[in-house]
Amino acid sequence: MGSDSGASAPPTLKLIVCLASGEEQTLECGDVEEFTIGRSSGADLQLRDRLVSRNHCRIRRQGEDFRLEDLGSANGTLLNGQRVSQRPLKRGDEIGVGHTRIFYQEMNVDLSTTDVELRVDQMVGTATATQTQIAPIRPKAPPVDEDPSSAIERLERERTNLFRLIRINKGINSELDLDKLLHLIMESVIELTEAERGFLILKRDEELEFEVARNFEREAVPHPEVEISRSIAEEVMRQGKALVAINAQDDERFRVFQSVASLGLRSVLCVPLRVKERAIGVVYIDNRLHKGVFREEDVLVLEAFTDQAAIAIENARLVSELTESNTELSESKERIERLNERLRGRVVRQEEELQEVRAQLRDRQSQLETKYNYQNIIGHSPRMQDIFKLLDRVIESDFPVLIHGESGTGKELIARAIHFNGPRKDERFVFENCAALPDTLLESELFGYKRGAFTGATKNKKGLLELADQGTLFLDEVGDMSTEMQKKLLRVLQEGEIRPVGGSDVIKVDVRIIAASNKELGTMVREGEFREDLYYRLNVLPVNLPPLRDRKEDVPLLARHFLESVCGEGKMSAKMVAPEVLDAFLDYDWPGNVRELENEVRRMALMADELIMIEHVSEDVRAGSPELDEPVDGEIQDLGELVARIERREIIKALDRSDNNKSQAAALLGISRFTLQRKMEKYELG
Question: In the predicted model, is pLDDT for residue 241 greater than 50?
Answer without folding.
Answer: yes
